[in-house]
Inverse folding.
């Protein structure tokens, strides 16, 4: 019984160490970092079936390609028609979560007619959001 | 004697080739441009954020030697520097080696000022061919 108790305590200590290490892995956000969508504007009307440019705005922080672990940097992710993902794990990579791991600062996208939301989220060299996470205002565009 | 001269020439040619080979090839179709301000803009108060635009390539901090990347340099009131050496670093040639994509300028005196962007590779040397923006002129009214 005593052994079980000790091993349980040991396991808990082990788990808490793992948890702390995992938590410590998140990259601290640069102070005053500000992320925004430079274009389109919130509410912008965009012609359907035609590619348009999305411009990524970032202040008080730099852009670095994925895997480049430089201070005060990250790379852009564009979230389309989705809410923000969990902040303690890698940002998903699919048609709703576009990664710009080569250090791109703008992109061209094409969306079907209708209302769509766009939001930017920075990821660190491991694609994990900073702590606290750096994300833009979510905007809505009207494609028609 | 002749042998020595030939040897020297060979060494020189080799050195020149090596120096040339060090320049990073520019990503094909890459384009650097000033998103804001527009050419001819009037900037009150002599302070502004310059938004630095890049197409067909990525931004990386200095020292990061990745394919198809570079970092921004903003040239204020000066000409393009020599393209085969590191871009100067002074008040006319601002380096953004942290991978920044916007530049804060303050204290611009009243009058006309020119702005131009030039990409540098991980060693601050322009790409081959060099990637630079159109040079724009802004006006700061008396304040």
């Amino acid at each position: 019984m005593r052994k079980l108790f000790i091993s349980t305590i040991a396991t808990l200590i082990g788990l808490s160490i793992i948890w702390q290490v995992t938590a410590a892995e998140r990259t601290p956000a640069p102070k005053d970092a500000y992320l925004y969508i430079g274009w389109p504007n919130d509410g912008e009307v965009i012609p359907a079936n035609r590619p348009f440019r999305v411009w990524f705005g970032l202040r008080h922080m730099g852009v670095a390609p994925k895997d480049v672990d430089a201070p005060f940097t990250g790379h852009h992710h564009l979230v389309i028609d989705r809410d923000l993902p969990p902040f303690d794990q890698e940002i998903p990579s699919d048609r709703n979560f576009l990664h710009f791991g080569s250090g791109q600062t703008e992109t061209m996208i094409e969306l079907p007619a209708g209302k769509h939301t766009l939001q930017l989220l920075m990821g660190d060299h491991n694609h994990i959001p900073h702590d606290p996470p750096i994300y833009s205002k979510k905007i809505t565009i009207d494609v028609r | 004697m002749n042998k020595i001269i030939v040897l020297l020439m060979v060494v020189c040619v080799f050195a020149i080739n090596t120096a040339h080979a060090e320049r990073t090839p520019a990503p094909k179709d890459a384009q650097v441009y000033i998103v804001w301000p527009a050419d001819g803009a009037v900037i009150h108060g002599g302070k502004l954020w310059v938004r630095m635009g890049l197409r067909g390539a990525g931004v990386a901090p200095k020292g990061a030697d990745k394919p198809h990347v570079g970092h921004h340099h903003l040239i204020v009131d000066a000409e393009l520097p020599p393209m085969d050496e590191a871009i100067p670093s002074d008040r006319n040639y601002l380096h953004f080696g942290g991978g920044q994509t916007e530049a804060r300028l303050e204290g611009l005196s009243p009058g006309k000022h020119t702005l131009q962007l030039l990409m540098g590779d991980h060693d601050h040397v322009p790409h081959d061919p060099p990637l630079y923006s159109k040079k724009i002129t802004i006006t700061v009214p008396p304040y």
About this structure: The helical segments of chain B are 2-21.
